[in-house]
């Protein structure tokens, strides 16, 4: 047995662990490996395959010898494709190893110890950890289900202080599926107009997975463009999670600073995956519409099934591929004092994995993904219903 004598964990990651989503997924996998029948509805990964023309582009790139290092900020072809889609210059685009690296680059490049970052809850689990790792202070603003899980202008105004450096805004939202209307975005922008020191991160990775109209923040509030970072990528719409390609669109000075961070961490993203992403952005994307309709049908089935379960109140999401129901009634009925305890019981005793709302900064809820096969959804929903007495 070996020991790590003298090991000391850095204070900046003292409270940092693998995300609860990953922990649950790994526990579900371990139970499966031990022979237990487990259905996982916990991960944010489409069950659709990567489109054939995207895979073919990667194959062609590999055969053509495009297997060398790329520029740190990305290949000219992919940066150009992203710039054309967003209506910006290539200097305002950086390609990273997934959207998560875009966010980490930005926080590490801009935050000083004690700088505050406003994040409406529920938020994607990595936001708070990335901010803390970069020395910042997450300022969590709970956004109730009754308000559509959306940040109000009044709540934003109340959260901003002289130490506020960023607002993190995610729409379509992971985990709630919330989408802000153009008018709602403009109302938030009116608050930000009064606080020019606050930059905005618009995480729009689920942009193409929308069931109501979606407006980019850069379009709704063009006056914010000189302090706006838009985060996007290939993972969700094109089912390219494992290809690890994300991009950031921001003023050139921020892109340059993010590149300085990235250059010391990963350098450029995978050359072959970047070629695939070019095909995704510029090719025939009619398949996205087909898959969106399939997700809409799954959403409707999942919402109806969960609302039939005692103690669960499940609103219908406007985008992405998650539901985020309130489960406090079920917790009380089964004698659990936390959403995490209920979710653990469902996994260990009933073989279905979902993620507690506490992981997203809003306890009393749970996240279920409907980006799974109909068979998995039926099995998982059936187990939840049986466990909770439907």
From TrEMBL:
GO MF term list: L-aspartate:2-oxoglutarate aminotransferase activity; pyridoxal phosphate binding
Protein's recorded name: Aminotransferase
Highest classification ranks of the organism: Bacteria, Pseudomonadati, Pseudomonadota, Alphaproteobacteria, Rhodobacterales
UniProt GO BP: amino acid metabolic process
Boundaries of every Aminotransferase class I/classII large domain copy: 36-384
Catalytic activity from the UniProt record: L-aspartate + 2-oxoglutarate = oxaloacetate + L-glutamate
Organism: Fuscovulum blasticum DSM 2131
PANTHER family: ASPARTATE AMINOTRANSFERASE (PTHR46383:SF1)
Keywords in alphabetical order: Aminotransferase, Pyridoxal phosphate, Transferase
SUBUNIT field: Homodimer.
Cofactor requirement: pyridoxal 5'-phosphate
Gene3D superfamilies: Aspartate Aminotransferase, domain 1, Type I PLP-dependent aspartate aminotransferase-like (Major domain)
Similarity comment: family membership: Belongs to the class-I pyridoxal-phosphate-dependent aminotransferase family.
EC number annotated for this UniProt entry: 2.6.1.-
Keyword Aminoacyl-tRNA synthetase attached: no
């Amino acid at each position: 047995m070996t020991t790590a004598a003298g090991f000391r964990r850095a204070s900046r990651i003292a409270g940092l662990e693998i995300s609860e989503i990953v922990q649950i997924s790994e526990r579900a996998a371990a139970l499966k490996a031990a022979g237990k029948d487990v259905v996982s509805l916990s991960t944010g990964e489409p069950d659709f395959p990567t489109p054939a023309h995207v895979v073919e582009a990667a194959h062609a790139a590999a055969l053509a010898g495009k297997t060398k290092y790329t520029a740190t900020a990305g290949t000219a072809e992919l940066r150009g494709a992203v710039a054309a889609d967003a209506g910006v210059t290539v200097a305002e685009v950086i390609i990273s190893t997934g959207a998560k690296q875009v966010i980490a680059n930005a926080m590490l490049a801009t935050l000083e110890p004690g700088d505050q970052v406003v994040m409406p809850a529920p938020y994607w689990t990595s936001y708070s950890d990335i901010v803390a790792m970069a020395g910042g202070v997450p300022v969590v603003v709970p956004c109730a289900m009754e308000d559509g899980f959306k940040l109000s202008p009044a709540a934003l105004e109340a959260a901003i202080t002289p130490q506020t450096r960023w607002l993190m805004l995610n729409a379509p939202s992971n985990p709630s599926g919330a989408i802000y209307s153009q008018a709602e975005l403009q109302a938030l922008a009116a608050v930000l107009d009064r606080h020019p020191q606050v930059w905005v991160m618009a995480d729009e990775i689920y942009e193409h997975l929308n069931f109501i109209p979606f407006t980019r923040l850069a379009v709704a509030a063009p006056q914010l463009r000189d302090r706006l970072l838009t985060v996007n990528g290939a993972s969700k719409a094109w089912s390219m999670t494992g290809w690890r390609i994300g991009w950031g669109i921001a003023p050139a000075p921020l892109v340059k600073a993010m590149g300085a961070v990235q250059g010391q961490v990963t350098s450029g993203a995978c050359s072959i995956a970047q070629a695939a992403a070019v095909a995704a952005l510029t090719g025939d994307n009619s398949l996205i519409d087909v898959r969106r309709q399939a997700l809409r049908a799954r959403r409707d089935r999942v919402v109806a099934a969960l609302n039939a379960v005692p103690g669960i109140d499940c609103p219908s999401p406007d985008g992405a591929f998650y539901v985020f129901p309130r489960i406090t009634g079920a917790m009380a009925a089964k004698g659990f004092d936390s959403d995490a305890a209920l979710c653990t019981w469902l996994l260990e005793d009933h073989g279905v994995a979902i993620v507690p709302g506490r992981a997203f900064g809003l306890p009393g809820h749970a996240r279920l993904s409907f980006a799974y096969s109909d068979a998995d959804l039926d099995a998982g929903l059936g187990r939840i219903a049986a466990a909770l007495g439907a």
